[in-house]
C-alpha cells in the first residue's frame, strides 16, 4: 500500500467511524435523548479564531456565521484525527487486519477530549459537572465514543473488504 493509499484509508476510516457515531446520535435523538448541537461546536471553533477559548455558556455566546457547517466540519476533522491516532498507535498494518480491541480502546480514550477540553471550554465544567445530570452526561459521552470506537473497526473492515 502506498503512502497516499494509507492516508486515504485513514481519512475514510475516520469519516466512516464519525458517520456511524452520527447514526447512533440520530437514533438517540429519535427516542428522545438529547444530543449535542453541532452548531455549538462551530460557535466554539469560530470564537477560537477570535482568540476566545473558554465561555461561561456557549449557548449564550454570540453566534458565528455558518456555525452549524463549521461544527459539522470540525466534528468530521476530529474523527479523522482520531483515526490517525489509532493508526499511529496500532500501526498502519492494522488497517489491513483490523481488530476490535484497539479500535474500541481508542474510542473510549477519545472521551477524554469532550470531558476534559470541550465541556469545560463550553461552560459545562469538567466532565459536565455544571450540568443538572453530570454522571448521566459522562456515561452518554462514554457510550457515544465507544460507538465511535466500534465505528473505527467497522469502517476499517469495510474498507479492507472493498479493497480486495
Keyphrases for this structure?
164 residues, mainly alpha, 6 helices, 0% strand, globular, DUF2938 domain-containing protein, membrane, DUF2938, transmembrane
How would you describe this structure to a colleague?
It is a single chain. The protein has one domain. It has 164 residues and is mostly helical. α3 crosses α4. The protein has six helices and no strands. The mean pLDDT is 96. It starts with a helix and ends with a helix. 69% of the residues lie in helices and 0% in strands.
Distance between the termini: 12 Å
Quaternary class: single chain
User: How many structural domains in the coordinates?
Assistant: 1
Helicity, in percent?
Answer: 55-70%
Q: Tell me what portion of residues adopts beta-strand conformation.
A: under 5%
Count of helical regions: 6
Mean pLDDT: 96
Number of strands: 0
Spatial extent as radius of gyration:
16 Å
Task: Please render the helix and strand layout as text.
Layout: H1 3-30, H2 38-48, H3 67-90, H4 100-109, H5 112-121, H6 134-163
Helix pairs in contact: 1-3, 1-6, 2-3, 3-4, 4-6
Task: Write a short abstract of this structure.
This protein has 164 residues and is an all-alpha fold. The protein has helices at residues 3-30, 38-48, 67-90, 100-109, 112-121, 134-163.
